[in-house]
Write a structure and sequence with these properties.
Elements: H1 3-17, H2 34-49, H3 60-69, E1 75-79, H4 87-90, E2 98-102, H5 110-122, E3 127-133, H6 137-144, H7 152-156, H8 160-168, H9 174-196, H10 198-205, E4 210-216, E5 223-227, H11 232-237, H12 241-248, H13 250-276, H14 278-283, H15 285-313, H16 318-365
Parallel strand pairs: 1-2, 1-3, 3-4
Antiparallel strand pairs: 4-5
The protein binds zinc ion.
Zinc ion (ZN) binds at residues 80, 82, 105, 133, 136-138.
Length: 366
């Protein structure tokens, strides 16, 4: 293609989409809608395919403008680090256009999700794209069960569920399995973001954000738009609760519930013993009461230790965590006082009885 033809193609594409060949959302004050942002990426990729010279948004003017006015990217893109899939180039955009996250295998773990949240919430991009690509080395390594070292096993472990799902769909050969896994891995990252980011879910529900999957072919340069996640409605309905569960979930959550249950039963028993039936309490004698108190404290202490460990693991939830610990703790202290008094009184009576018995015995003997 000669240069003149390139420019004509670029101009034609720009005209049909009504937006300058440089791409980017700085032209309108309001910013693009999710679908507009998507069409900008699509037209950018068409300019890239047409071999259009570099984006006009790489100009000195654009650089100075974005440095001064701040960034207003129109899309957040989570892509792979593969050198053959450079995001700004394949979307034919420049400085200040994309909020880009690149990580091997385009996986979505805490840091990537945090970066995505910064893009969609703080910078307010109306579009989030998770972009996989053909011949992805990270996905291929998992499919082939390649031996990986250092911190790579932890990274590729995020891809394992995607490959497992692709295998379940029964693909005939390894090449087909790799392709299916790359596709599943895009869905995997989207569902990971939606399952762990209530913030992203909220924006999507409000219609302020669209989340789409896409595949880049490193040989043809084309992008296959996969659209929204097939289970998006279900994922949105779950409201990113797994992200919240990281602070409150699993065994510690059960421990909190068990602690509340144990305290309730224990305090009810205490109330009954102290207020309604003091005779039963006195029949328990010193040792009986001592062990009753000890057992109660031991169970409550174990439960509270579990809750404490759980709270220590979830930073940022300290406010509610402290409240949760302080309320049972104050009740425990109150009853510790009552028990101490009761045990002390029993001990006194026990010694008094013993002394009287001994005096009676010695009186009888003399
Ligand atoms: Zn890759």
């Amino acid at each position: 293609m000669d240069p003149m033809k390139n420019i004509l193609v670029a101009a034609a594409l720009s005209l049909t989409l009504g937006f300058p060949s440089g791409g980017g959302g700085h032209e309108s004050a309001k910013g693009p809608s999710p679908d507009e942002a998507l069409s900008w990426l699509q037209s950018g990729n068409r300019r890239f395919l047409a071999g259009t010279p570099l984006s006009t948004n790489l100009s000195l003017e654009r650089r100075l403008d974005t440095a001064k006015a701040g960034q207003r990217p129109f899309a957040t893109v989570l892509g792979c680090s593969d050198s053959r899939a450079p995001l700004e180039s394949i979307f034919h955009v420049g400085v200040g256009d994309l909020f880009a996250v690149r990580v091997a295998g385009n996986v979505a773990d805490t840091d990537e999700i945090g970066t995505v949240e910064y893009g969609v919430e703080h910078l307010g991009t109306p579009l989030l794209v998770v972009l996989g690509h053909s011949s992805c080395g990270a996905v291929t390594a998992v499919v082939k069960g390649a031996k990986v070292e250092g911190s790579i096993p932890a990274l590729v472990s995020k891809i394992v569920p995607a490959v497992a799902r692709a295998k379940k769909a029964s693909t005939p050969d390894e090449a087909a399995l790799i392709q299916a896994s790359i596709r599943e891995n895009v869905w995997q990252s989207i569902s990971e973001i939606l399952r762990r980011s209530p913030l992203t879910v909220e924006l999507a529900k409000e219609g302020k954000l669209r989340i789409v999957g896409a595949l880049y072919r490193i040989d043809t340069g084309e992008i296959e738009w996969m659209g929204n996640h097939p289970d998006e409605a279900k994922l949105l309905a779950a409201e990113g609760k797994e992200g919240k569960k990281e602070g409150h979930g699993g065994i510690p959550w059960l421990a909190s519930l068990a602690l509340a249950g144990v305290l309730f039963v224990w305090l009810t028993a205490c109330f009954y013993l102290f207020v309604s039936d003091r005779r039963l309490l006195s029949r328990l004698k010193f040792r009986g009461r001592f062990f009753l108190a000890l057992a109660g404290f031991a169970v409550a202490a174990a439960m509270m230790a579990l809750v404490a460990v759980h709270q220590a693991a979830s930073i940022g939830e300290t406010g509610s965590g402290l409240a949760f610990l302080i309320s049972p703790l104050s009740v425990l202290l109150l009853f510790a006082g009552i028990y101490t008094y009761s045990v002390r009184a029993s001990l006194h009576r026990y010694i008094k009885e013993m002394r009287e018995k001994w005096m009676e015995d010695s009186a009888a003997n003399s």
